[in-house]
Write a structure and sequence with these properties.
With 357 residues, the chain is α/β, with parallel strands linked by helices. The protein has 13 helices and 15 strands. Helix 3 runs parallel beside helix 4.
Length: 357
């Protein structure tokens, strides 16, 4: 009686071993898809990833999230082999990827991109934030400039929401013809000043190469806007500049900025263009970043040195599909009705089918 039991036990163990090997082999055979995206896409792209992998079980999405400029640096300065790049500012792709070449080939890192989503800049806060019962669309710029109010912004050298926060103040000055708003908020907050110059046709904000907060500053700086959420939730911040989608995803209160300052309204594009931010530092070897105000537009592309370009195109096609749109909008992130492609002739055919030149 014992012999058959022993044989069964051995066979059972062998079976378990084979099953374990098969699982490991199946995992090893999956195609790893490297996706680098803006931090404001963490939650919606997390759900996109799950649905995409369910549809394409042979692909393993491996996502990293950073400030949008930092995403660009991983591609063009650190030369990492990334399959999909998604940024909160589509203009970064031609500015930094068209203008920078892959060392091995001498060809640009990208020659096309798709604008796929928008957003609105807003202030996130809590019920117990200082002046929470007082702040409104008319006085927001004055309220958060008060010395007893702690306000968080993302570092404009690394994150698009950071330089957009600076733009929002400049746009409020222009719209209200009140040129005393920027100073109380940002003057004397940094060891090297952030400056603003208002000309007849253009307002220019200059960010220094070294951006450090003074100990007494009421402005709190972090590398990416998503890092400010925890500080809000802990009560270490009263307000933070965030995208409306992110605020809603985290269940925080939203102080919606007026249309002239939120950088999300198509009808205000001409006003937005009256502001620009210059980054006065040498972090990028090939270009000097300069950002002109425009309606917020997220951009996505496949770098020229991507190791899995076909799978990358499938991922983007899924994002732009009705299912992808539904998942994005369920996470409060608005998609454009029409997906406009720059460099349309260079797109993979699967993406030409769902975009417009």
């Amino acid at each position: 009686m014992r012999k058959p039991l022993a044989i069964l036990l051995i066979l059972s163990l062998l079976g378990l071993g084979l099953t374990s090997c098969n699982i490991q082999q199946a995992e090893a055979e999956k195609t790893p898809l490297s996706v680098f995206a803006a931090g404001s896409l963490i939650i919606p792209f997390g759900n996109i990833e799950k649905a995409f992998e369910a549809k394409y079980p042979n692909i393993d999405v491996q996502a990293e999230y950073h400030g949008s400029i930092q995403v660009m640096r991983h591609a063009t300065e650190l030369h990492e082999p990334i399959d999909v790049v998604a940024t909160a500012d589509a203009s970064l792709i031609p500015m930094l990827m068209y203008a920078t070449n892959v060392p091995e080939t001498g060809k640009p890192y990208a020659n096309w991109y798709i604008r796929f989503a928008s957003n609105h800049l807003a202030l996130a806060y809590n019920a117990d934030s200082n002046y929470a019962s007082e702040i409104n669309a008319d006085n927001w710029a004055e309220v958060i400039a008060r010395p007893d109010v702690k306000t968080g912004i993302a570092d404009p050298r690394f994150d698009a929401s950071g330089y957009r926060a600076l733009m929002a103040y400049a746009l409020a000055e222009i719209a209200n013809k009140n040129y005393g708003l920027f100073g109380p908020m940002f003057d004397d907050q940094f060891t090297f000043p952030v400056t603003i110059f208002s000309g007849d046709e253009m307002t220019t904000i200059t960010v220094p190469e070294i951006l450090e907060m003074k100990p007494s500053a009421h402005v709190v700086l972090r590398g990416a806007s998503i890092e400010l959420i925890a500080l809000l939730e802990s009560g270490d911040l009263d307000y933070a500049f965030e995208y409306e989608s992110v605020i809603q995803q985290h269940g925080l209160k939203t102080m919606s900025l007026p249309a002239e300052s939120n950088l999300g309204e198509q009808d205000y594009e001409e006003l937005y263009k009256q502001v620009q931010v210059d980054l006065d530092f040498q972090r990028f070897a090939t270009v000097k970043p300069q950002f002109r105000g425009e309606r917020i537009g997220y951009g996505i592309t496949v770098p020229a040195n991507a190791q899995h370009p076909d799978e990358a195109a499938l991922f983007i096609a899924f994002l732009l599909s009705p299912e992808g749109r539904s998942l994005m909008e369920a996470d409060h992130h608005p998609m454009f009705e029409t997906f406009i492609a720059d460099g349309y002739k260079n797109l993979p055919p699967v993406l030409q089918a769902v975009t417009t030149e």
